[in-house]
Write a structure and sequence with these properties.
This protein has 64 residues and is mostly helical. It contains two helices and no strands. The longest helix has 25 residues.
Length: 64
């Protein structure tokens, strides 16, 4: 390896300087107020409801 050459400087060449060398802590974005969590929960409820409906329609086709 060449003297003074670092892998991180080569790999992160196109990354903005503020983002080099550190990883943001996981957590919710206070500016969004948890909108993503609410959207995920609503999607989960809809997906479970559709799955239950499809299983019921498969088991009892004469009612649908």
């Amino acid at each position: 390896m060449a003297r003074g050459w670092r892998l991180s400087s080569h790999v992160c060449r196109a990354v903005h300087g503020a983002h080099r060398g550190c990883v943001r802590a996981a957590g919710t974005d206070p500016a969004r107020g948890g909108e993503a969590v609410i959207a995920n929960l609503a999607g989960l409820v809809l997906a479970v409801g559709i799955a239950v409906y499809l299983v019921a329609a498969l088991l009892f086709p004469e009612r649908f």
